[in-house]
Amino acid sequence: MAYQPIPAPTPAGTQFTSPVPIIGPQYCASYPVDLAIVKKVLSITDGNFVVTDINGNVIFKVKGTLLTLHDRRTLLDAAGNPIVTLREKIMSAHDRWQIFRGGSVEAKDLIFSVKRSSMIQFKTKLHVFLANNTKEDVCDYRIEGSWSERSCVIYAGESNTVIAQMHKKQNVQSVLLGKENFSVTVYPNIDYAFIVALIVILDDINDEASED
């Protein structure tokens, strides 16, 4: 059974009254979930993250393998079991990532994919397509905002319905320790493992953009 974070105050305008599982129903809470995400910015090979609740309890870890042909990361639960594998699709014009169940990268285990909405962007805008949305005429979810300010918002489809939003949490100590902290509020009944996977991809795409 997945660890259940401690409830936070319900945000205004909550839209979903029943769970919306993308990775799994065990990651859908009936209350808002506040998560803290710590990125080890000085890590060369691992691109690692640790995700905790507001009390510092570890919920997820992210392991990265960045020095291979495919940029690949794995979202793990607190015990180190793989939940999903995130793989960048090479030779993709829009920085497409594919997310597979567990440790797999087989097509049958594809859950969703993420790509830039356009080649040239001054602000972050990514489109998310579930595996069964093969036409990709309309995205299932989208991410918009300013990654440099860590003020991105995740919406349901092309609507104005917010399902999660992130905020920067930086302090002098974390900078000195080579870490970058930010938080995300996941709205009730939204799959918080799905949201964490999106933020990991968002970070990688913007890291690559900053290097161009």
TrEMBL record:
Q: Which InterPro entries match?
A: LOR, LOR_sf, Tubby-like_C
Pfam families referenced in this protein's UniProt entry, alphabetically: LOR
PANTHER family named among the record's database cross-references:
PROTEIN LURP-ONE-RELATED 1-RELATED (PTHR31087:SF160), PTHR31087
Q: Which family does it belong to?
A: Belongs to the LOR family.
Name of the molecule in the record: Protein LURP-one-related 15
